[in-house]
Amino acid sequence: MPGIVMDNLRNLDLNLLRTLAVLLSELNVTRAAERLHLSQPSVSVQLARLREILKDPLLLPGPRGMQPTARAQSLREPLAKALLALSEVLAPIQAFDPSTARVTWKIAATDYSESTVLIPALPGLRRLAPDSRLAVVQLAPRSIGRQCERGEIDLAFHSADEAPSGLRHRSLFMEKYVLVGRRGHPRFNRKMSLTQFCKLDHVIVSPDGGGFSGVTDAALAEAELQRRVVLSVPHFTFVREVLLSTDLVAMLPARLVRGMPGLQSVAPPVDMPGFEMVMLWHERSHLDPSHQWLRDVIVSTINPVGPRT
């Protein structure tokens, strides 16, 4: 049966369905032609084609015009539903109205991107789309592509150099690293040498857990130097409390510690590469009006750099 249906569809000009619907409504070829803005001969040709495809006369001469056959009568309701469904499929995409939308977005983020991207964007999102909901899930870098493809997440925030290929992306900002310690740290009141930097007790953020080496250590290794890393933690948010209560220091993204009370930051004595933070999403969501709106609100909150891609 599915094969027969597909064969019928391949042989059918969908315009014939509209013609049939109008003919069943008017029961008159001339009036149907006027409604369809076609000539009467053209409608007659289409009726003949419909009779051939459906293997039924469909409309027969009667005392008061044409009369539908039993087959034609049975087609009225399903035909109307089919044409309505087709019109909905082909209708222009409706504009997204955030003020009335009831939509749930799922976003994958680290505690760093939560602090630097989502928290600044949240007031605007709540004000403009009060009935929307936002679900923030822990970023799993190796799963971003698969999660976006399956629709498990709508957006993800990650560094450009580690972003998976095949996803749409938009640059959010460039980030740099600074050396951070508690305000009044004895080593921060004068210019620090590279040797002094290496002798400090450092805390490192290791998202995978337990690592004692990062981008700073890679930069030092090129100069055949090594720092003292005495504490490894999985989250940036934990580092703040550590720095406030000890003389440990940390190399942290500048945006993360901007304006944090009790902490001070200085330029490190080691040349450190920064990174680009990007927003990631799948092609399946690229043209969705609500998704476009969400992306634009986030970008407008944090001053974007670079074009959409």
From TrEMBL:
One of its GO terms (molecular function) is DNA binding. Pfam families: HTH_1, LysR_substrate. Keywords: DNA-binding, Transcription, Transcription regulation. The keyword DNA-binding applies. It comes from the Bacteria. InterPro entries: LysR-type_TF, LysR_HTH_N, LysR_subst-bd, WH-like_DNA-bd_sf, WH_DNA-bd_sf. The keyword DNA-binding applies. Gene3D superfamilies: Periplasmic binding protein-like II, Winged helix-like DNA-binding domain superfamily/Winged helix DNA-binding domain. Residues 12-69 form the HTH lysR-type domain. Transmembrane segments: none annotated. Belongs to the LysR transcriptional regulatory family. This is Transcriptional regulator, LysR family. It comes from Paraburkholderia graminis (strain ATCC 700544 / DSM 17151 / LMG 18924 / NCIMB 13744 / C4D1M).
